[in-house]
Amino acid sequence: MQILGKYITNITTMAEDKKPEQQFKHIVRVANVDLPGEKVLSVALTKIKGVGLNFAHAICTAAGVDKSSKTGYLTAEQVVSLNKATATFDTIPSWLFNRRKDYETGKDRHVLTGDLAFSKDNDLKRLKKIKTYRGVRHLKNLTVRGQRTRSNFRKNKGKVVGVKKKAPQPGTANAAAPAAGGKKEKDKK
Predict the structure, then answer these.
(1) Residue 123 to residue 67: CA distance in whole angstroms
(2) Tens digits of per-residue pLDDT, 47-86?
(3) How far apart are CA 20 and CA 28, in angstroms?
(4) How many Å apart are CA 145 and CA 59, to the nearest integer?
(5) What is the CATH number of domain 21-110?
(6) pTM of the full predicted structure?
(7) Where in the chain is the domain with CATH 1.10.8.50?
């Protein structure tokens, strides 16, 4: 029993040693976005609009921060390096960017948060203005990427309209309904 007691006390002291001495922060602000402190850093960075998991890994390596650490235990220097990495994107390869060969500048860029929505809206307005196929499809609220619209995408087209049969008009051949049973009697000779 005594050996077991020593073993348990050793485990608890080891667990206490692994905890960082700094204070846990529930919210960490990176790139003007509040990140949850209880999540792993690479997952928490995906809360920034325009940052996916692969780009979050690239930001962590560019900033020199461990991507598997909890966001709440980041030091002030690490937060500053993350902010710098999300502002410049110098060391991140250009094939990860979300605006390659930008229309206005012709350069590879990566935009985040409000700038991403603004540039997307400007792109759609430009397509509508020059009346490209994609722009016209956006104007009419139809599908843009070649999907078939015969039976799906009812929310874009409106309420379902069925085919209504024409009612027989009086005075036509169809108006006089056949006699009982719907069969015509044949003349017998």
Answers:
(1) 33
(2) 999 999 999 999 999 999 999 999 999 999 999 999 999 9
(3) 16
(4) 31
(5) 1.10.8.50
(6) 0.65
(7) 21-110
